[in-house]
Fold:
Amino acid sequence: MPTRLFALNGVPDDEAEDVRALLTAAGINYYETPAGNWGISSPALWLNDDNQWEQARSMIAAYQRERVIRVREEYAQLRREGRHRTLIDVIRENPLRFFVYLAVIATIVYFSIKPFMDIGK
Structure:
């Protein structure tokens, strides 16, 4: 029976490609399910053979430990150099989008608390 090995929800493309390459290089037989037309299905990598479960999980766990260390070091390096992305950078890249989102959030908050403000009247 197929077993879900690795969920791809929210996984960066480079990480998914690395995991696929890792499994292929180890000769582990797997297949992938996409998110579907509307993105509501669960994209994942599935094992065909349950006997390969332990090997595959240990390989993915080791890869993820290495990736965490590498990505944290890259971020620390960018931060030391002053090149990490901040909120100000996001606003500068697209100020119109930022203010539209801010207006939508303010509208939602206003209509969410308005009925409670009118209770005491």
Q: What stands out?
A: The mean pLDDT is 93. Residues 85-121 form one domain.
